[in-house]
Amino acid sequence: MLKKLHHVAYRCVDAEQTTKFYTELLGLKLAAALVHNYVPSTKKSDPHNHIFFEMDDGSFIAFSTL
Description:
Helix content: 10-25%
Low-confidence stretches: none
Order of helices and strands: EHEEE
Number of domains: 1
CATH architecture: Roll
CATH topology: 2,3-Dihydroxybiphenyl 1,2-Dioxygenase, domain 1
CATH class: Alpha Beta
Structural class: alpha+beta
Radius of gyration: 13 Å
């Protein structure tokens, strides 16, 4: 049975604008920012990044840019 959610991820267009909204307006902590140049499972070129924001309960909301 599902007991806890570590993170949920959504697509976004602008990482800087998304970061500003979640940190300045909602007050979440920017927990991590990862940059990838390819899809690990397929090795296909696909430059993108992931940004993670920590919530009070220790879970995260994440965004991936195109």
